[in-house]
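Aim 2 progress update. The chain analyzed this quarter is reproduced below.
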Amino acid sequence: MKGKRVLIINRGEIAIRIAKALNELGLVSVGVWTDNETEPPHLEYCQEWVHLSGNNNKETYLNIPKIMKLIEHYKIDAVHPGYGFLSENREFSETLAAKGVTFIGPNPIAVHKMGAKDISKQIAKEAGVPVVPGSTGEIESVEEAIKLGNEIGYPILLKAVAGGGGKGMRPCYNEKDIKENFSAVQREALSSFGYAGLLVEKYILNPHHIEVQILADKKGNVYHLFERECSIQRRHQKIVEEAPSPFIGTDEALRKAICETAVRCAKAVNYDSAGTVEFIMAEDKKFYFLEMNTRIQVEHPITEEITGIDLVANMIKVAFDQPLDFKSQEDIKIQGHSIELRICAEDPITMLPAPGKIVGFETTFPQGIRFDHCIYPKFTVTPDFDPMLGKLIAKGFSRDVAIRKLRNAIDGLIIDGIKTNIPLHKVILDEENFKNGHYSTSYISLIKPQEKVLVKEEIKSFMLKVAAIEMNQLGGVK
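Predicted structure tokens:
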């Protein structure tokens, strides 16, 4: 395995994370730069740089023929796709396999079966796993979606067959909503994942989004690394994640049931590599298979923190058929509690992307804080990519300790020049429902922490005006 050349076909903080793992394992990390991102921060961590020409994602990170030419020209042995882009693209993994290039992810058949939400749902059913009511396959038309919506009852969710990350998903509460949203969701799916296919699912109100991290080798062994709670979301995208789930809490029978169900799903497709099985858990704690992400997740660090297992390094080892860092399920234990905040370049009140240039960046963190990021002063955040800048992660002996550490840490995170969601995170960490672990995917819409951000920003503006008046009365500063 040592000395193999691995192309990281991604950017930002995940490319940095992958490069660090490759370097640690003695592999050659090869990073890419594009025409619309000529000084990406991840290159600092890569041993070699190559140019992926193009000015948008379709011309670069989603362009399989162009990437394959790079692989051939630079004699690449393996590819790590990170998350997003081509990480769950069946054509890409099959093309690599045909050329004898190692894909650091699951085998192409598993990518196909579990990466496609319609097929994975059917596989889950056959494996005896409860699934959310909805279409058994891809929906071809607005009329078909309306017919199914009337059969299973509203609200329903229009959802992209491919991809993830909350993109290509919209709830519909009646026939009119379906007519208005169908084409828009198709366009978003095509733009984000290169495929416009859609599913229809029953939209369960006020659920919990619980996911189970699994790791499987090439010998048929599948292990779970327990669950994560990812219920605080905006636009169906997670912004706060924690492990283990406060909703499951001390219910060890429920924890065992959902984790073993995830393992069963993975075994049904002979899965190998890191992956995540996602579930919707209703208020009565019944859970339903949602989908499987056949890649590393954005929120993988909190699982690493509570288990002590390096997920990225181990998925690389699996790809090269090397032994994992542990020998049995019994070796994997939960130790403490970990919470992650996604730090994004977006307005903390509207929660919409806010690109711009970072002019100042400082960190003053308490002991034990992890910050996976791609920030530096003068770094320009463009509208071309996802607005996430980094992930602030705390681990504590208990959930209360993790919250306290994280609240202190975010006070020490300064990003100037652009709007970020840091003020929103401060409100969430101080809010009683969150502190007590009482929240669902409806948290943002029901609790409305963004409205408290508005009040705090108004107070801050008022105090600055008062200070300016006082300085003027004192004659200012000479």
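The chain has three domains: 5-104, 133-202, 208-453. DSSP finds 15 helices and 20 strands in the chain. These observations will guide the mutagenesis experiments scheduled for the next reporting period.
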